[in-house]
Amino acid sequence: MRLLDVQDLSIYFGGLGAVRDLALTLEEREILAVIGPNGAGKTTFFNLLSGFLKPTRGKILFREQEITGLEPHRIARRGIVRTFQSTKVFPGLTVLQGVRAGCHQRVQSSWWDIIFRSRVFREEDRRIAAEAQGLLEFTGLSSRRDAQAKDLSYGEQRLLEVAVALGARPKILLLDEPAAGMNPDETNRMIDLVTRIRAQGVAVMLVEHNMYMVMGISDRVVCLNYGQKIAEGTPQEIQRHPEVIAAYLGLGAAYA
Amino acid sequence: MLTEVLQQVINGLIMGSTYALTAVGLTMIFGMMHVVNFTHGEFYMLGGFFAFQLTALLQLNYYLSVALAILAVMAVGFVCERVLLAPLREKSIDTTVLVTIGLSIFLQNLALLYWGPTPKSIPLPFSNMPLRWGPMVLTWSRILAVVITFGLIVLVHLLIQKSLLGKAMRATFQEKDAARLAGIDVERIYALTFTLGAGLAAGAGALLGSIFLIYPSMGNIAILKAFIVVILGGMGNFLGAIAGGLILGVAEGLGAGFVSSGYKDAIGFVLVILILMFRPSGLFGKARRL
Amino acid sequence: MRIPAIAAAALGVGLLPLAVTSKYQLHLVIMAAIFAILTMGLNLIYGYVGQLSLGHTAFFGIGAYTSALLALRLELGFGWTLLAAAGLAGLAGAFIGHITLRLREAYFVIVTLSFSEIIYLVVVNWVDFTGGPMGLPGVPSPAGSLPGVGAWEVTSKVSYYYLTIAVLLPLVLIVYRMIRSPIGTAFVALRENEDLAASVGISAYRYAMIAFVTGAAFAGLGGSLYAHYVGFISPEVFTFHYMIMMLIMAIIGGLGTISGPIVGSVLFTLLSEYLRVAEKLREPIFGAILMVSIIFMPQGIVPLAGRLWRALRRGRFETP
Question: For labeling, which of A135, B46, B56, C22 is most exposed (least CB within 10 Å)?
Fold first, then answer.
């Protein structure tokens, strides 16, 4: 079964088509990079996928079920979780609390269980605690467990974002510029993390400007410009694609 | 029967224009700046009381008193903005709401202590005899209120839409950082806009206080009506504020005819709730994110 | 560490009427407890979820009037009036919440206030039903009949104290359990970053509703206790005056904490009585307190006290 099927997706703001007739697919355990110059519509595309924007036209099918126009929290519950271009954390919560919030949706305890602290509740509480701890170790944040999210460094906050998102056990993880503002060491850590995420069975779609990361990790790359898909293929194919080069460097460079 | 309805409508239009006048300042502060300012009612009230103090107790000329009252309240507004609001601007909205509520209680009770609870009236410099126009009754002062309302709102609208200052204001409140980068002194714009808004409220208070009465809690009702008008007319839409005020006035006037007049004030609240449920950008506003 | 503290507190609460013998002082304690119930409700939607509701008094008033009317007109026992108060207030909360919780913050503030004003106007004007501005006098003290026990009635101040505590304590337990569960996690996640919470599947509407309706029901319970205790209610219970008091209590006690509302209510009730001598200056002082506390002490006393306590404990084990 195809994991994600986007058909003729478009959104218009007034007369401006931020995303136009976009079609792409995503298979299980695939890492797909979405690249393109600034303003190409990449983050808008993520907003459409995750429900933060409603499209003007088109369909989004997740595991062959239509999710177009659903509210963000419903799409997250189905299994598509995103991170944001500008880092979002729960500033006043500790790292551990934040990740536990991410694990929230798998809670089964009912009102009765909660008020009376039944065994069902206590077991679930333990399970979530263990899961959250596991995610901290997975992302390398165990040492910062009790620090407040707002006190973390930029790189740590970015890792926290991923940990929180993973708490929701996504089938597709949308990473919006995960390597932005990172030095080479941090970038390598992020690449390693994404690889390990894929190994856990999660498909990853990333918007990224950092070509080192894009080339190093993606199975496929899609290039957008002015809201439309202008190229699709393996990293090597995209690297040589004249339209991609033109989009980034200007028309002259393509045929230089 | 028809004349009664017509009288209600005329009364409604006149009341409505007073609501619009009260709301101009709040359109600036709430509609444009997005500051939920609960002290606005007290700016309105102080405008009335300062004018009263100057005319009745110091025997100054009416127009001079009103002008001075406006300036005095603008000073108060300026201090409020700089001392209380500017430091809290980055915090969440509820901080501003609560601070302005606290300030409003503080100012209202100080006024109560100083001037006492008995309503006062401001003597007008011209005769206020009722006019009969066919079967309808009007007074000069109310006509004056309507004229000033329209004139003032159009003036403010032109200021905001056409002048350089107005452009700077709109830029600041749409996108503060971009405005700063374009060389606009953002802090000065905030202070100026708030002060102007306070002054407009004071003017409304002084003028309406001359027509009706002034008392320390007059701001309470005024501010609620003002919020209703601003939301009805579309945030930041000055011309919309005229329409919003008139609609509110007429709705209340007609409504009071059908339901008991005690419920009259509830009409505005119901309107606000309905508007926000079905047309959040107001009757005349453009759809935009707050 | 917790068990001895809780036991001590329970003992203190249980034996309080032995220490506080003055009727007047006991009255203050009862009022503080009733306000604590109200403030705990407000704290759920404002302190935990982070939405400022200015209409909380509506639920207080609805609870008070429901109890009063049922007791006066239908002569129902206290158990029924209490339950009905909570139920009706909760229902009103569901209705108002459904309309308001999807609105942006500034609008939420204004519309919750609007609802409160509408209800006030209805109560004042519907004289046949609610007694209008004169209010409802002669609300009977809590009474009823239990199978096997027979008729009972609460008349003495001491009994009132225990009755109020008997309502307050289970509510504290409910809040405690709720906050320490995924519901509480969802609350604070929404307060800290609503978009992020949505992106991991937390529905803002659902959890805000839970907080809002629970808070409304709490206020209804407080209203019922108030009506039966004071014996007379008027539309005054819907006025902004009570809203301000609840806000001050919530803020100075500590928003988003479990004990904050209780601490805040006690402090404020004491402060309010102490300031009674200042007469007309009392109101502006309240306004000033609201301003000062939100500017300088927005987290409130309980978190500050917690930090002080931890700092003191650390100090004790420092070796030179």
Answer: C22
List for chain B the helix, strand, coil content (%; round to 5): 75, 5, 20
Pick the CATH number of A80-170 from 3.40.525.10, 3.40.50.300, 3.30.70.100, 3.40.50.10860: 3.40.50.300
Cα three-residue angle A175-A47-A17, rounded to 5 degrees = 125
pLDDT, averaged across chain A: 89
Give all chains having 3 or more CB-to-CB distances under 8 Å with chain A.
C
3-state secondary structure of A25: strand
ipTM: 0.91
Q: Is A171 near chain C, with CB under 8 Å?
A: no
- Cα(B148)–Cα(B143) distance, integer angstroms: 9
- Domain B2-127+137-278 part of CATH 1.10.3470: yes
Which of A49, A74, A110, A115 to mutate to test binding with chain C, by most C CBs within 10 Å of its CB? A115
- Report chain C residues touching chain B, CB-CB < 8 A: 46, 50, 52, 54, 99, 103-107, 109-111, 113-115, 117-118, 121-122, 124-125, 244, 247, 251, 280-281, 283-284, 286-292, 294-295, 298
Using pLDDT thresholds of 50, 70 and 90, give the confidence band for residue B261: confident
Number of residues that make up chain B:
290
* B134 CB-near residues (< 8 Å, 6+ apart): none
Contacts of C217 (CB under 8 A, 6+ apart): C41, C59, C86, C87, C89, C90, C93
Please tell me the predicted confidence (pLDDT) of residue B289.
43
Write out pLDDT tens, residues B22-70. Answer: 899 999 999 888 899 999 999 999 999 999 998 887 887 888 888 999 9
